[in-house]
Amino acid sequence: MARLFGFIGNRSDISPHVLRVEAQAMVARGRGKTLGWGFGFYQGGEVLLRRRPIDAHPTVDVSGLMRDVRTDVLVGHVRLPSVGEPGTRNPPPFRYRQWLFAHTGTIAQFENLRDRLVTSIPDFLMRNVRGDTDSELVFHLFLSFLHDAGKLTDQTPAAEVVRALRTTVALVDRLSSEEGAEDSGRIGILVSNGEYIVGLTRGTGMAYRPIHGQDDIEALLPDDAFRRSRLPDLARVRFDLIGADFDEPPAGQWVVVPDGSTVALGRQSKVEVESL
Q1: Rounded to an integer, what distance in angstroms lies between the CA atom of residue 94 and that of residue 117?
Q2: How many CA atoms lie within 13 A of 40 on its CB side?
Q3: Which among 19, 144, 153 has a CA at the least distance from the CA of 75?
Q4: Backbone phi, psi, residue 124, to 5°
C-alpha cells in the first residue's frame, strides 16, 4: 500500500522524533510489489529532495527515513508505481520554486488525455516537467491555475491554494469523463510552499494527527535526549502529521478528514477543513 505523508510544526530540532509517535501507521507495505519513495523538506531557506525510485525492502518505515532530517515542513510519498517508469524523475514529491507536491491515485484515462493536459499548461511551466507521470502533470496544471490568478508567489494564501486545487481536480474530472471514464477515481494531494500544507482527499482515507503541548512533546522525545536538550517552552511546541492511503483507518488521536474535502495545516493556525 502506498503512503502519502507530511508534517508541519514550529520546532525543526524536534522533527526527527515526530513521525515516531505514529511509526506503525507510517509503515508502507509493498505486498509483493516494488515500492519507491521520496520526500521534500525545507531547510535553511532551501527546498531539498530525497528520492529512491526502487526500494528492495518489502516494507518502508517512513519514520526511519526521517531520523536525520531537521525541518519544520515535510511532504512525502511512498509509491506503488502505476504510471511512468521507476526512474529518479518520477517519484514524488515534485518541486517548482518553493512548491512541493505529492499525489496518490491514478488519473482515469490518463494516456488518452495526456496531450490535453499538456496543452492546458503554459510553456514556462512545462519546461520544468522531467518525468512521465500523471502526478507531475497534475502538479503543473495546479501551478498554471495559481499563475492565472497571479498567485504563483511565496506569499500565496492557503485559500488560493485550495481554490486552485479544486479547479485542477474539476478539470481533470471533466477531461477524464470526456475520454470515457465511468467515475472520477480516487485522488489524494499534499502541497506546500513552506508556510503551510494543504491536503485534498477523495477516496484516500486522509487523516491528521495533532501533536501539541508539553505532554505530547515529552512523550515523543527519548528520555536521554530530553534531558540533554532541556527544551524551553514545550507547551508552545506544535506539530501536525498528515497522511493518506493507510493500511487500516488510523485510530487514537488521528482526526479523519471527511471524504471529498480539503484541509489546511499551519504552524500556529487552526486546522481548516472545507468540502470540495
Answers
A1: 17
A2: 23
A3: 19
A4: -65, -25
pLDDT higher for 255 or 112? 255
Reported as a single tens digit per residue, the pLDDT across 123-149 is 999 999 988 788 999 999 999 999 999
Cis? peptide before 86, omega within 30° of 0 = no
The string of pLDDT tens digits covering residues 214-238 is 777 777 776 655 545 555 677 788 8
112 pLDDT tier (thresholds 50, 70, 90): confident
Rounded Cα distance between 77 and 7, Å, is: 12
pTM: 0.91
Could you tell me the three cell numbers for 250?
488510523
Residue type, 42: Y
Torsion angle in degrees (nearest 10) through CA of 58, 62, 64, 70: 150
CATH 3.30.565.10 fits 3-275, yes or no: no
Alpha-helical segments (H) within 78-222: 110-119, 123-126, 134-148, 158-178, 213-220
